[in-house]
Amino acid sequence: MTMIVFGGITLAALIFSFVKSTSRTGDSLKKALAMGKSMGPQIISVLLVISLLLALLDQELIQAVLGTDNELFNTSMGALIGSVTIIPGIIAFPLSKELLINGAGYMAVAAFITTLTMVGIATSPIERSSFGLKFTLYRNSASFVLAIIIALIMGVLL
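The structure assignment produced for this chain is given below.
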C-alpha cells in the first residue's frame, strides 16, 4: 500500500514538473536514468550479498548475537559489527528490518545502524592520513560512545 501511495505522489510530481518545464524535466530524467544505470550493478551486488548473508545466518544465530536475551551483550555486538562494517545506508536500513523480523532487538539494531554510519574502523587509515591519529581516535571513540547512548535511548523509547 505504501508503494502505491509513494508511486502516486511521484507520478503527480512528475506530471506537475512536465507541465512546468518539459525540457528541464526531460533533462532531469535523462540524468536520473544515467545515474541509475551506473549505480544499478552495485546496488544489485550488495543486495545479493545481504540476501546470501541472511540465507546463511539462521534465526537462532541472529537472536543469540543481536537478540534481547542479554541486552548489554547484544547491543555491544551490534555496535561492534556496525563499527567494522562498510554498508551504504540504503542497504543497511532494509537489512536492519530483516534483522528485526528474525529476532534481533531494537537496541542492538539501533547500535548497529548508528555505529555503521558514525564509526569508521575500516576507513580509519584514510581518515588518519587526512586528519591525524589523535583526531581519528577521538572522533571514533566519541562516535562509539554516542552510538551506545542512542541505542539505550531507542531501547527505552521502543
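Interim note for the steering committee: The chain has a mean pLDDT of 88. Residues 59 and 79 are 19 Å apart (CA to CA).
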